[in-house]
Design brief:
alpha+beta; 265 residues; two-stranded antiparallel sheet; five-stranded mixed beta sheet; Lambda Exonuclease, Chain A
Length: 265
């Protein structure tokens, strides 16, 4: 399959290729439990992930910097009021964009080649990546729009985690770096250009430590064969019983104890 900007997010592309977002649907991150059943349901067209306001605000900012904001607006008319003005949450996205654009250092990191697609075989699977800002032979940059850049997320087995590890952006950096290396022979640093959605947006350019990406890539290697087996129908997927898909399709067969309600805490 020849990947293009038009078919990159298609079901056909997702069936043929693994991506970081698909990997995280199956395996989860430290901050989000993965669900094999939900991931396969999405792959088979049986379930669509909800477009939350938070996700759409991030997509608005992404679309601006990749030069497709007019198309984004046309495809998402619900971001406007009946009077034709942007809804308040999307005016916040405009504020984030304005804050980014008045910072020279941040903007230098957004000046690479936009939305560059690469593919490669890794751990027995075909992968696809799409880079926000790519500087050949120099650097890979991904744009993130977060609620708060400095929020500490607590996990009982790990302590406090920054948003990069919590949401698995070290996984993204590891895979992007490796696929670029497969294609070019160059192992490039990976940075996240991040902005917050606060009233006064915070901005940072964050270089992800190589040790974190090496560790993440080792974890990916352990899981790929299982994901491929699931995609090929060799196993029944495990339900997480926590995601929206599992809640929607749950069939009760027995009672639980009150102590089981907090089993994940």
């Amino acid at each position: 399959m020849n990947l293009t900007a038009e078919n990159y997010f298609s079901k056909e592309a997702d069936r043929e290729y693994l991506s970081v977002s698909q990997y995280k649907k199956f395996m989860g991150t430290l901050g989000r439990v993965g669900c094999e059943a939900e991931a396969l349901a999405c792959l088979n067209g049986e379930w669509e992930m909800k477009k939350t306001t938070s996700l759409m605000v991030g997509s608005y900012v992404d679309a601006h910097f990749e030069g497709t904001l007019d198309l984004f607006k046309a495809q998402n008319p619900d971001i406007f009021t009946k009077q034709g003005a942007l809804k308040a949450e999307y005016r916040r996205a405009e504020e984030v964009i304005n804050r980014i654009e008045r910072d020279e250092y941040f903007m230098r990191h957004m000046a690479g080649e936009k939305q560059v697609i690469m593919t490669g075989e890794l751990f027995g699977a075909k992968w696809k990546i799409k880079m926000d800002s790519y500087f050949p032979d120099v650097l890979i940059v991904d744009l993130k729009c977060m609620k708060n850049l400095r929020e500490a997320n607590f996990l009982k087995d790990f302590g406090y985690l920054d948003f990069i590890r919590y949401w698995g952006y070290d996984i993204q950096g590891a895979v992007y770096q490796k696929i670029v290396e497969i294609n070019t022979g160059k192992k490039l640093p990976f940075k996240i250009a991040a902005a917050s959605k606060e009233e006064y947006p915070d901005i940072e350019v964050i270089q992800v430590e190589q040790a974190l990406m090496d560790e993440a890539l080792s974890e990916v290697e352990k899981n790929v064969s299982h994901i491929l087996a699931l995609k090929n129908g060799e196993y029944e997927p495990v339900r997480c019983e926590r995601c929206d898909y599992c809640k929607h399709t749950k069939v009760l067969t027995h009672s639980i104890w009150s102590s089981e309600l907090l089993v994940d805490v």
